[in-house]
Request: fold
Amino acid sequence: MPELPEVEVVRAGLAPAVTGATVLGVTVLDDRALTRHAGAGADFETALTGRGLRSAVRRGKFLWLPLEPRSGGGEPVEAVIGHLGMSGQLLLRAPGAAPERHERVRIDLVHPAHGEVSVIFADQRTFGSLAIDELVPTADGAPGGLGGGEASVPRQVSHIARDPLDPAFADAAFRGLIARKHSGIKRVLLDQSVISGVGNIYADESLWAARIHPETPAAALSTRAVNRLLAEVRHVLEKALAEGGTSFDAQYVNVNGRAGYFAHSLNAYGRTGEPCPRCGRPIVRVSFTNRSSHFCPHCQRGPRHPSS
Reply:
């Protein structure tokens, strides 16, 4: 599933094409791509056609395009919200380009500087979605996410915590939440109400870098360890972002259809049986709910259990 770096790469690629553009037309080829939208495909097409797009914004794994108010002034009150799910892609194509494989929705735009362009939502496994959602004020009064200036966020995203690359992310509040969580730290990192955008890949990589076992109870971590972990989370995400994200197959690509190459920089995730880059012992894989955890049992010592 695309995580924060992959979605940020897509957002940054969309931003120049959509900011200030107007929607010329919308074609919904598969209503399954609108599972988060309140209406059917025809409603989505009608509601979006003719609207202006203000920017491209992201929080965690969600991105949205605030819509200019129908009255022509003031702050946006609606946005097109997108979630890539397992295999969703948002691609920029020339107007009239041939249909993409697994194309679900096509949004035709005209930009005052760049001319016409089409935004294609393609999704092989149909777990991703687009929707028009109302914008609500942010709880802290800060901009809703990276790329936007308005202190608003789609209602469907309002329960999602800020991500660690967001300038408004509160380190102290994060430390306070960690101190009250007794679940394993990896489970807490995947809790999008605590910190957003960190999925299985980057949780494993961050815990390896911080030398923390994934099953260590979050509340058992010292303040120093939490600070070290948060610093490593940011470092891993920023490095992945610089390398275009992680692509294991053709399902994740940027807006131009190119894959990321952070998979070549992974230290733990997906490296079962390979030597740990730090100590040389084998990386192990253990079941974790419906996922897997990858870590070095030598560098990331397991939590100590009191004697019975």
